[in-house]
């Protein structure tokens, strides 16, 4: 029987980029996994946590623990949300022993999408085809908290017709940072422009990343600059054929 995977789609994907969620399902099903989508899911609590509203974050996190209690694997198309669940649930449940125990049990079940493909599915070639010159943006949480760097590049290397050109600022922040981009709009915009300059120097027609929030920030900056460069989530690239 095929292994069962539960999709935690994240707020940004659910509300703004539903095609990313559908692409994740398409790739996983192509590899033989059974994918379920618990409809009661909401948020991981990261926006509240990052803004200092710890109790509100706990309320949302408790709901997450309840909804995904029976999951074998939880796949997340976001480094930041994965990091929140795998690392920071432990921070917010320090005074709730039972929920802390439940949260720790999730750490071995929760996988960012690309890491699941590499470490669980053992699949670097998912049969994708995309004739594009792309550059890859390392999102902050995926790179710095989850230490994801080589895996997405290995997956891209197996996409037929795709050429990956590294930018000189691949590891620099795009400036989104959740509520940071709202509170410090001018700084956020400056960081995005620096990133865009690096993207342009590669000559790529597409920017790929693991986090739709980063891609939203970059696409906004690219559009305002009038540049004919699009953004794609890694799942969308891997679903192409």
Descriptive account of the structure:
- This protein has 13 helices and eight strands.
- Helix 5 (79-92) runs antiparallel to helix 6 and helix 11 (185-202) packs across helix 12 (212-224).
- It folds into two domains: 4-119, Rossmann fold; 127-239, Rossmann fold (3-Layer(aba) Sandwich), CATH 3.40.50.
- The two termini are 26 Å apart.
- The chain is 51% helix and 11% strand.
- It is globular and about 50 Å long.
- 43% of the residues are buried.
Provide the fold topology.
Blueprint: E1 4-7, H1 11-15, H2 18-30, E2 34-36, H3 46-50, H4 54-67, E3 74-76, H5 79-92, H6 97-106, E4 110-112, H7 113-120, E5 133-136, H8 140-145, H9 150-157, E6 163-164, H10 180-183, H11 185-202, E7 206-209, H12 212-224, E8 230-233, H13 234-239
Parallel strand pairs: 1-2, 1-3, 3-4, 5-6, 5-7, 7-8
Helix pairs in contact: 5-6, 11-12
Summarize the structure.
By secondary structure, the protein is α/β, with parallel strands linked by helices. The chain has helices at 11-15, 18-30, 46-50, 54-67, 79-92, 97-106, 113-120, 140-145, 150-157, 180-183, 185-202, 212-224, 234-239, and strands spanning 4-7, 34-36, 74-76, 110-112, 133-136, 163-164, 206-209, 230-233.
Report how far the terminal alpha carbons are from each other: 26 Å
| CATH hierarchy class name of the largest domain | Alpha Beta
The major beta sheet can be summarized as: 4 strands, parallel
How does the overall form come out from the CA principal axes? globular
CATH topology of the largest domain, which one? Answer: Rossmann fold
The average pLDDT score comes to 93
> What portion of the residues fall into strands of 2 or more residues?
5-15%
> Helix/strand-derived class?
alpha/beta
Order of helices and strands: EHHEHHEHHEHEHHEHHEHEH
Per DSSP E runs of 2 or more residues, the count of β-strands stands at: 8
Low-confidence spans: none
State the helical fraction: 40-55%
**Total of helices:** 13
CATH architecture of the largest domain: 3-Layer(aba) Sandwich
Gyration radius, in Å = 18 Å
* Order of adjacent strands in the largest pleated sheet: 2-1-3-4
Q: How many separate structural domains?
A: 2
């Amino acid at each position: 029987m095929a292994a069962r995977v539960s999709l935690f789609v994240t707020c940004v994907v659910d509300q703004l980029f539903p095609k990313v969620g559908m692409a994740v399902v398409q790739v996983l099903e192509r590899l033989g996994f059974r994918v379920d989508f618990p409809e009661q899911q909401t948020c991981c609590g990261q926006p509240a946590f990052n803004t200092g509203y710890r109790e509100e974050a706990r309320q949302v996190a408790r709901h997450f623990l309840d909804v995904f209690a029976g999951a074998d694997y939880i796949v997340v198309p976001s480094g930041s949300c994965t990091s929140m669940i795998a690392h920071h649930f432990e921070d917010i449940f320090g005074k709730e022993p039972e929920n802390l125990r439940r949260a720790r049990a999730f750490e071995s079940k929760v996988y960012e999408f690309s890491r699941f493909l590499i470490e669980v599915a053992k699949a670097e070639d998912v049969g994708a085809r995309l004739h594009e010159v792309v550059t890859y943006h390392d999102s902050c949480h995926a790179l710095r908290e989850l230490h994801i760097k080589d895996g997405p590049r290995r997956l891209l290397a197996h996409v037929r017709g795709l050429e990956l050109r590294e930018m000189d600022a691949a590891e620099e922040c795009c400036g989104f940072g959740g509520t940071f981009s709202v509170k410090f709009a001018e700084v956020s915009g400056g960081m995005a422009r620096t990133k865009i300059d690096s993207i342009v120097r590669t000559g790529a027609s597409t920017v790929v990343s693991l986090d739709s929030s980063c891609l939203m920030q970059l696409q906004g900056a690219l559009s305002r600059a009038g540049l004919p460069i699009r953004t794609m989530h890694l799942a969308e690239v891997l679903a192409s054929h």
